[in-house]
Structure formats: C-alpha cells, structure tokens
Amino acid sequence: MSDTIIKRKSLADEVADRIKKLICSGDYMIGDKLPTEPELMQKFGVGRSSIREAVKILTQKGMLRVQQGTGTFVASLSGSNGMLSNCLEKARYEEVNEVRFLLEEKIVEKAALNRTDADIERIRESLLKRKHFAESGDVAGCIQADIDFHTAIAEAAQNSILLELYQTVANHMKKALAELHKNTQAFIDSQAIHEALLQAIIDKKEKRAINLAENISKHK
C-alpha cells in the first residue's frame, strides 16, 4: 500500500478510507495499535483534526477502539454495521446482555487457558482505571474502562472471531450502559467480582472464571 500524501482537502472521510484499506489489506491486524497522531499526520499529510475525525468515524463503525492513555487499536476487520449490529440495534438491553454473556462464557474460559503475561497486564490496567473512574464518579470513563477490561479479556482468548463478535456486542452494550447508569455505584459494588475474575484468569481456573462471568452479567 502506497503512503502517498493526500493532496486535496478534507479529508477526514478520505483518511478514514485509507486507514480502512490498510486494515482490510492486512497492514494492520485486529489488536494492532495504530501509529500515533503525529505519525498519521505525517503519513497522510493532513492536520490533527482530520486524523481525530477519521479515528472517530472508524470507531463509530466498530473498526477502531480508542483506549484512554494507551492508544488506538484495530477492533474489527469489517466494522459493526452488518446484520448482527442491526439486530443488536433493535434488541432490548436484556437480550444484548444475554448475548454478551454467552460470548463471555467461552471467552473467559479460553482466556484462562491462553492468556499471556502481556494480556494480564492489559486486563489489570483496565481494571485499575475502572476502579479509579468509579471512585471519582466519572460514569463515562468508568463505562469505557469496563468495556476495555472485558475486551482485553477477549483479546487474551486468542480467537479473532470471538474478539470481533464481542467488540460488536460491546459497542451496543456501551450505549445501553450509558443510559442505564447515572452514577458509578454499580461499578463500585461489582469491582471486587471483576478483580476475582482477573485472578481466576491468572490462576488458569476456567470453570471459576465462567461462574464469575455469569455473576457479573447479573450486575450490569
């Protein structure tokens, strides 16, 4: 893929299209971190605002995931605008949460078996952020950290299809959680069980991880 600088103005949509092509062509794979904003600015010859808008476009489509303080990562090869996404858009919260748990049941089992030390660090980092935002009363930050925590577990499962399915569901869960939670008390109350899930994954106790995931789904 050529890195030819974009000549005409725009450009957020065209930059988004360029990044999408890089993802679809395999230059960036699921879980890969994108270059920094300055690097992307130089690569495409556009300003910071165009890069940020392009990332926003692809994030809304489910192809990218922005993790605060860490960077922007490839979340999907095709985005979340397909049949599953359309069904989720029309579904009740309880239905989406049920699908999420069915995915997480297998995800946490495989994460407990396949996780690496790097996976554990990513999961732990998101969990610490979840606690920080919960205790500071930041609902939006807490929801994002919660999503990042569970997504990091999905990455640890080492199954790209499960990861993409989970990210599509999580994209809709995020909207539902924002409507459901007006404060962070529920996240404070469930912090301990999330910490227990992390420990079960560390200890490679897949059955305990599954039981904890089921209990977590009841707290959402």
TrEMBL record:
PROSITE patterns: HTH_GNTR. Keywords: DNA-binding, Transcription, Transcription regulation. One of its GO terms (molecular function) is DNA-binding transcription factor activity. InterPro entries: GntR_C, TF_FadR/GntR_C, Tscrpt_reg_HTH_GntR, WH-like_DNA-bd_sf, WH_DNA-bd_sf. SMART domains: FCD, HTH_GNTR. The keyword DNA-binding applies. Residues 9-77 form the HTH gntR-type domain. This is FadR family transcriptional regulator. The lineage of its organism: Bacteria, Pseudomonadati, Bacteroidota, Sphingobacteriia, Sphingobacteriales.
